[in-house]
Specification:
Two copies of one chain form a homodimer. By secondary structure, chain A is an alpha/beta fold. Chain A is built from five helices and five strands; from the N terminus they run E-E-E-H-E-H-E-H-H-H.
Chain lengths: 200, 200
């Protein structure tokens, strides 16, 4: 399985491609970072990052794109730009029919290091070890992109099965709710409404 | 000036096109809303909204796209999707060399109704009056998209000048800072460091 991991960001956007199967050694195909200057206006920054992501998608043809799931609880001043980049990445993948998986930072850390609370340095060290690299990828955003890709190689299929089961369960629950509501409406129409006012 | 206004959203994304000049009656060219079902996965939802925005951009060829500036203080559960849509819209405009202007909800309300605290109903009523429509555009997201476009027609050129002045002022300040740092470094190198240790 070839996974393209993206650690979304405007100032630095980490991108990394990993080949691997669960149970086998994963391999780093390419890793890098796209930078855009803060002085450049937002639409142009999104375009620069988008063009680079498109080049990586077309060059490596990944089966899946793994993107960090952004939470609004984080640093308020940067979270909007990060969310906008993640939207752009998801769009560009969807345009190429490449599925997109979102993983939370703690999912990634837990998958890579066994602890959801590992710091950036520990994640970079584990990525270096797992992929058999000579030195830790720099900057941290590049290491994070590889960590996302490794996380997906290892946990993606399982997480996808969980998500599928959840969707099925939700659809079932919705179906039940609808049938209950229908039955209740039918009961009301036929005058058998079990409310106080009808106890004559 | 032709402005395409977008009230970004995944469940409902309002789009409206307005022709106008400051001081003349503005005209509604087209208004609508793109809906995507919550069951559909995120990348596909972004793609559906993106394709519709592209159709509007290509059909109306606006001079500017006006998008609501998203704040993370808002509803946490929807703000990420909204930010992602705004990123996609900015990208698609940038790909066509159409400038993008971001306006905050209170800027829009203040421009349209004179008060930054107008509610959705008041904004819709004012948009209806300003554009001489027979009935208020529905849903509220469609009215909001027109409000954004009208706001930009009326206030855009002024806001753009303010933003330009700010950028210039920041560049000047940065330049001054750099020159001060350089002078300080040069002073230190020549041994004239004005610190206590040098008062022999």
């Amino acid at each position: 399985m070839r996974v393209l991991g993206v650690d979304p960001g405007l100032t630095r956007c980490g991108i990394g491609v990993v080949d691997g199967e669960r149970g086998r050694r994963a391999r780093c195909v390419e890793v890098g970072v796209v930078r855009t200057p803060a002085e450049t206006e937002l639409p142009r920054r999104l375009q620069v990052v988008g063009e680079e992501v498109e080049r990586w998608l077309d060059r490596h043809r990944p089966e899946v794109v793994a993107v960090e799931r952004v939470f609004s609880q984080h640093n308020v001043s940067t979270v909007m730009g990060t969310a906008q980049v993640s939207g752009v990445v998801a769009l560009l993948a969807a345009q190429r029919d490449v599925p997109v998986a979102f993983h939370t930072p703690s999912e990634v850390k837990a998958a890579i290091s066994g602890s959801g609370r590992a710091d950036k340095k520990q994640v970079a060290a584990m990525v270096t070890k797992i992929l058999g690299l000579d030195t830790p990828p720099k900057p941290a955003d590049a290491a994070d992109a590889l960590a996302l890709a490794v996380c997906h190689v290892w946990r993606g299929p399982m997480l996808a099965r969980i998500a599928e089961a959840q969707t099925r369960a939700e659809a079932l629950a919705k179906n039940h709710r609808n049938r209950l509501q229908e039955a209740s409406r039918a009961a009301r129409r036929s005058g058998e409404k079990p409310s106080k006012g009808h106890r004559r």
